[in-house]
Every structure is written in C-alpha cells, then in structure tokens.
C-alpha cells in the first residue's frame, strides 16, 4: 500500500482552497494514509459476486411535479439567511475575491 | 502562471494553410421549467436577489433534493431531437469543487452516465451540409450569479470581492457536448461552429423547452479548440473559451483561437490546457485558470438521488411529442414555396421564417409574402433595430395587403403606403386604405375612354407604338394620368392600344435579404 504523499495532500488542499503549513502537510499525509489504509481493508472481502452499489434502496425515478412551492413549503426569510452568512452586501452573499491565482 | 498568454496572432489564411482546427462545443441550455432542478423554488428571471432560494439550493445541512419530472422529460426530448440514444438507467453525480457560485461545494451533474448519448445534428453552411456528432446531453444545475466588485473591468480579474445571488443556483441545465468536429474545411470551421449553435438554438426553441435567449444567459457556449499540423492525425492541446454568449461571438472566438494557437505553435511554443475568457468588445480571449483534470472534481454517484431509469414506453411517448424539427421544417417550406436552399437561408437569416409561414397560412401566396417581409418590412425592422415579429404589423395584415394587391385594388406603390400606415399605427390595412383614400382606379370604362382620347390626341405617338416603339407609351400614359387625375398610381389591364407598354411598372421589387445580426 503506497503512502499518501505530501504532494497529494498539497494538491487536495489547493482543490479545497485550504492553506496548509509545511507541518500540516506532513501531519495530514500521515493521518490520511492511516484512513485510506483502514478503508482499504474492505477490499480484503470476497466481493467478486457483489455488484457495485451506490444506493441502498432499490428505487428509481423518484420525481417531483414542476409546481412552485406547493402548499406547506417553508419560505426562507432573506434577512435571516443573509444574517447567518459571514458577510453580506446588497442583499447578496459577500465572498472573498475569487481565483486568487489570477 | 501560464506561458501561452501571448496575444501574437497569425494571419488566418496562413494559420489555416498550416494547421487543421479541431473543435468541440459545449452548450448549456437553461430549461424553462417553472421550478428548479432539485427543489420547488421558482425560476423567474430578474427577481430580487436571493428571494428564490430554499434550504436545498442553498446547500443547508439536512436538505434533500428531489428531481423535477419536467426537467427529465425535457432532457429526454432534447436527446431524441438530437438523434441520441436514451439511457435505460443513469445516475446523477457530484462534481466537487470549491467555488462560491455553488453553495453546496459541489454541483449535482451527471458524469459517465448521461441521460442521452451518441447522436448528431446536421447543419448547413454555404450550401454544404455538415453532420455534427453529439457525444452526450446530460442534466445538471446552474450556478449562482456572481458580481465582482472593484477592479477595473468588473470581470474576475482584479476584483476585490464578489457578491453572490443564488436565485439562479439550481435552475435545470442541459449540457450538450459535441464529438470532436474534424474534417470541416478550415476556412468554414468558425462558421460551422456558429451554425451548429444557431441550429441547436432553433431546435431547443422548437421543442419549447427553453426560450434559449443567449443575451439572458439561457444558452451559453464553451468553445474548445485545438490545432494539428495540416493532415496530421493526432489532436493538439486544446483551450476552452468559456461563456461565449452570442452566435457572432462563437464565430469570432473560434477564429481568434485559431490565430492565437497557430502563432504559439509556429514559434515553437506549447499550448497550455486552460480556460480562456472571451472579451465581447475586442473579440479576443485571455487566459483564465489552468483547467482542472476530471479526476480533480472527484465525481461520485449522488447518494441523495435515486437513479433515473426511463422506461422505453415513456421514451416513446416523449418521442411522439416531438414537433417537426427546424431542419425538416425548412426543407418542407422551401419545397412548398418553391424556393432554393439559398433563398431559404436568406429567409432564415432575416428571421422571417415564422412570419412568412403565418402570412401564407393567412392566405397570401408565398412569393408575395416573401417579397414584403424581406423587402419593405426587413428594411424597416433593420432601421428600428427590432425583429420582424416585433414590428407593429401582423402576418394577417400582410396577407390582407397581398389580397388587395392581387384583387387589383392596390398597386405595389399604394401597398407600400398601406404598410407605412399600419406601421405608423393608423390601424389595419382596410382602415389605412379608407383613411388615406388609397384606391386604384378600377373603372375600366372611364380608363378606356381616357386612353382612347389620349391615343386620338396623339396620333404620331400611337403610330410609333404600333411600329414597336413601346417607350413612346409614356406620352399616352401621362395624358391618361392627367385626364383621370390619378397622381399616385393606378393599375391598367392590358389593352390592345398599349401592349405591355412598360406601365404599370413590373410588380416586383428588388428583394434584398437583411444582413445577419
């Protein structure tokens, strides 16, 4: 079982927009390695005859009619929603500058 | 960050002599459903920011999505119209990325199991037909709308911060992806790209699944383009120009990228696989972000939604709802109207297909309907910078005018005045005729008397005409007009005295198609 490398952690951190210190990269590489190792134990089971399954329920085609907010649909209060965001402005969510790499 | 930010361009002809372009087009269509893809929030355009949101489309903990049945139907109908196979079983997938336009930190999309796949759409450019392969059409949801504050351009570059409105987040999208478009003669490639998007747009509108208004972002195009040395097999590295939002821009973006790639490659450089921003004002692109690999999105089956398994009965029911598709309709109408493909293209380019068809349906002959809509009316629409259908004259009005002309009650010249009156809001054609007192003299008796008198008064001229000099008839005509006090126009049936004497002027005008937008 190959170890999770620091580079892989750094790459994941970039995708997740997380800023990690050098020490954290080592720390998480070690932790992730242990987690992946633990999950990998599943592959020790004899699963040749078990089809891949993404859903536990044998259901398909669960649809909703195209009806706007049927009776009983709770309507969110905008002020309340925005108040829970870290920052808001002009009735919109205010977020940091996007695409720092540009 | 990138080495391919040079704006050096190679002359287009030279670029196409040395390289073959390969294109791929990804078109996103916002469906016109009443509610979002996975929740019952309304989708109305232009609502107050963040008023059409709920726990599901805001990604609040514990909220669960439920699929919109009409969106699935629309996706299947689009797939069928594009000659695709419809999956018997498919799933949604999470496309994970951290970007504030998706509050969930993933977009619910489809990955390797699109609902429709492997189809085609035929387009015509300069009288040649090209079959564009469709790789797939899949269901997903739109993102929120970001407004970038600060910075010089208002675009992402240089923005200080962004404000996000999630009204659009979760609106159903169908993404339609072509197979690589190869084998199109290079000089036609940009036009083929444009024609494909135009044809797809017409098809979407005909299906009634979206208004597909590009200026409202209801239809958006990403242009993938790469070059390979002329005749080579292997594709080059591609760039992906995002959000090209008009037909004209599709063509311009393709042309620009051909020139840019060619310059980079010819100078020994390499093309970086990246997204590019298109600048509408200059017709140029600039470097965006380096494209993430598919694996970076860490797609996995969406656990909150069960699979979609359209029964074959359902698919056939939906197939039966397909309207006549634009390509077939154009062929049929060209045949009915007895016009060439080229003339039909002029009709389409002028945006006149619907109005002419409606005018014919209201009783006009096709040639007259085409004449008025492509002539007088197209000119007016051009002047007013509106679509033909937005002019304050209806196909029924035009059909009535045609009827009056063919009944001999109006000449073409008078008809133009009637049109002018209708456009000026003076009422319907009959009202304008009455109000302006426009009427052709149709009292043959009075007219014939006047002609006899005119001939008798000008024996020398009459002799010239009899001798074959028809131009001389002008003198007789002038005398008749004076005698009948017709100053505007009148219609004269052929009489032995003035055989095809060049009056009235032939009823045809130069029909000039309006140039494209």
Please give the structural blueprint:
The complex is a heterodimer of chains A (102) and B (517).
Chain A: H1 6-15, H2 22-40, E1 63-64, H3 78-83, E2 88-89, E3 92-96
Antiparallel strand pairs in A: 2-3
Chain B: H1 12-18, E1 19-30, E2 67-68, H2 69-81, E3 85-86, E4 93-96, E5 106-109, E6 116-125, E7 128-141, E8 145-149, E9 161-165, E10 172-178, H3 189-207, E11 219-229, E12 239-244, H4 247-266, E13 274-279, E14 284-290, E15 300-301, H5 312-319, H6 326-336, H7 341-349, H8 353-361, H9 366-384, H10 395-406, H11 412-423, H12 429-436, H13 444-457, H14 459-466, H15 473-484
Features:
heterodimer, A: alpha+beta, Histone, subunit A, B: 517 residues, alpha+beta, 3 domains, three-stranded antiparallel beta sheet, 15 helices, 19% strand, elongated
What's this model, at a glance?
Chain B: Residues 354-494 form the Asn/Gln amidotransferase domain. Chain A contains three helices and three strands, in the order ααβαββ. With 102 residues, chain A is of the alpha+beta class.
General description of the model:
The complex is a heterodimer of chains A (about 100) and B (about 525). By secondary structure, chain A is an alpha+beta fold. Chain A has a domain at about 5-45: Histone, subunit A (Orthogonal Bundle), CATH 1.10.20. Helices cover about 35% and strands about 10% of the residues of chain A. Chain A contains three helices and three strands, in the order H-H-E-H-E-E. Chain A has helices at about 5-15, 20-40, 80-85, and strands spanning about 65, 90, 90-95. A two-stranded antiparallel sheet of chain A has the order 2-3. In chain A, a hairpin with a 2-residue loop joins strand 2 and strand 3 (about 90-95). In chain A, helix 1 (about 5-15) crosses helix 2. The longest helix of chain A is centred in the N-terminal third of the chain and has 19 residues, at about 20-40. Chain A is flat. Chain A starts with 5 loop residues before the first helix and ends in a 6-residue tail after the last strand. Chain B has about 525 residues and is an alpha+beta fold. Chain B has three domains: about 10-310, no CATH class; about 325-435, no CATH class; about 445-515, no CATH class. Chain B has 15 helices and 15 strands. Chain B has helices spanning about 10-20, 70-80, 190-205, 245-265, 310-320, 325-335, 340-350, 355-360, 365-385, 395-405, 410-425, 430-435, 445-455, 460-465, 475-485; strands spanning about 20-30, 65-70, 85, 95, 105-110, 115-125, 130-140, 145-150, 160-165, 170-180, 220-230, 240-245, 275-280, 285-290, 300. Chain B starts with 11 loop residues before the first helix and ends in a 33-residue tail after the last helix. Residues about 1-5 and about 485-515 of chain B have low confidence and may be disordered.
């Amino acid at each position: 079982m190959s170890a999770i490398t620091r580079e892989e952690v750094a790459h994941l951190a970039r995708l997740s927009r997380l800023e990690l210190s050098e020490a954290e990269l080592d720390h998480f590489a070690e932790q992730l390695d242990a987690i992946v190792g633990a999950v990998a134990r599943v592959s020790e089971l004899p699963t040749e005859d078990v089809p891949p399954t993404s859903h536990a329920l044998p259901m398909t085609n669960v649809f909703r009619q195209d009806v706007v907010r049927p009776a009983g649909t709770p309507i969110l209060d905008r002020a309340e929603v925005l108040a829970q965001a870290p920052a808001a402005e002009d009735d919109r969510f205010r977020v940091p500058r996007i695409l720092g790499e540009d | 960050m990138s080495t391919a930010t040079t704006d050096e361009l190679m002359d287009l002809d030279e670029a196409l002599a040395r390289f073959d372009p390969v294109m791929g087009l990804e078109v996103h269509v916002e469906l016109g459903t009443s509610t979002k893809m996975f929740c019952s929030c309304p989708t109305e355009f232009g609502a107050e920011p963040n008023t059409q949101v709920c726990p599901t489309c805001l990604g609040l903990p514990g909220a669960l999505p439920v699929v919109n049945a009409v969106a699935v139907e629309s996706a299947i109908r689009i797939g069928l119209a594009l000659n695709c196979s419809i999956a018997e079983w498919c799933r949604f997938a999470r496309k994970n990325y951290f970007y504030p336009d998706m509050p969930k930190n993933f977009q619910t999309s489809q990955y390797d199991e699109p609902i429709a796949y492997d189809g085609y759409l035929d387009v015509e450019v300069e009288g040649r037909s090209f079959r564009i392969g469709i790789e797939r059409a899949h269901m997903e949801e739109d993102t929120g709308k970001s407004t970038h504050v600060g910075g010089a351009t208002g675009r992402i570059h240089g923005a200080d911060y962004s404000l996000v409105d999630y009204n659009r987040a979760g609106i159903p999208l169908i993404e339609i992806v072509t197979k690589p478009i190869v084998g199109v003669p290079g000089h036609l490639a940009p036009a083929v790209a444009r024609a494909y998007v135009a044809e797809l747009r017409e098809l979407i509108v005909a299906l009634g699944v979206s208004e597909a208004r590009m200026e409202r972002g209801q239809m958006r195009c990403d242009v993938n383009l790469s070059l390979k040395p002329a005749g080579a097999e292997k594709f080059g590295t591609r760039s992906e120009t995002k959000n090209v939002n008009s037909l004209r821009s599709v063509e311009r973006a393709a042309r620009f990228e051909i020139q840019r790639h060619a310059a980079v490659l010819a100078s020994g450089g390499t093309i970086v696989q990246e997204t590019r921003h298109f600048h509408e004002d200059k017709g140029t692109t600039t470097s965006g972000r380096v494209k993430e690999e598919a694996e970076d999105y860490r797609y996995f089956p969406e656990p909150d939604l069960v699979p979609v398994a359209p029964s074959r009965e359902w698919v056939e029911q939906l197939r039966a709802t397909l309207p006549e598709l634009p390509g077939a309709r154009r062929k049929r109408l060209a045949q009915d109207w007895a016009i060439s493909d080229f003339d039909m293209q002029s009709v389409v380019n002028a945006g006149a297909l619907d109005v002419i068809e409606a005018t014919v349906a209201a009783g006009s002959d096709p040639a007259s309907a085409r004449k008025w809509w492509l002539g007088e009316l197209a000119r007016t629409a051009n002047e007013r910078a509106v679509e033909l259908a937005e002019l304050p004259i209806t196909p029924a009005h035009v059909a009535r005018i045609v009827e009056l002309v063919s009944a001999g009650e109006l000449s073409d010249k008078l008809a133009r005045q009637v049109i002018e009156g209708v456009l000026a809001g003076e009422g319907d054609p009959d009202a304008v005729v009455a109000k302006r007192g426009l009427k052709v003299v149709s009292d043959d008796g009075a007219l014939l008397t006047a002609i006899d008198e005119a001939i008798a008064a000008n024996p020398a001229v009459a002799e010239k005409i009899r001798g074959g000099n028809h131009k001389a008839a002008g003198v007789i005509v002038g005398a008749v007009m004076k005698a009948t006090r017709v100053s505007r126009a009148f219609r004269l049936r052929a009489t032995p005295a003035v055989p095809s004497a060049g009056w009235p002027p032939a009823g045809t005008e130069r029909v000039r198609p309006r140039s494209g937008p």
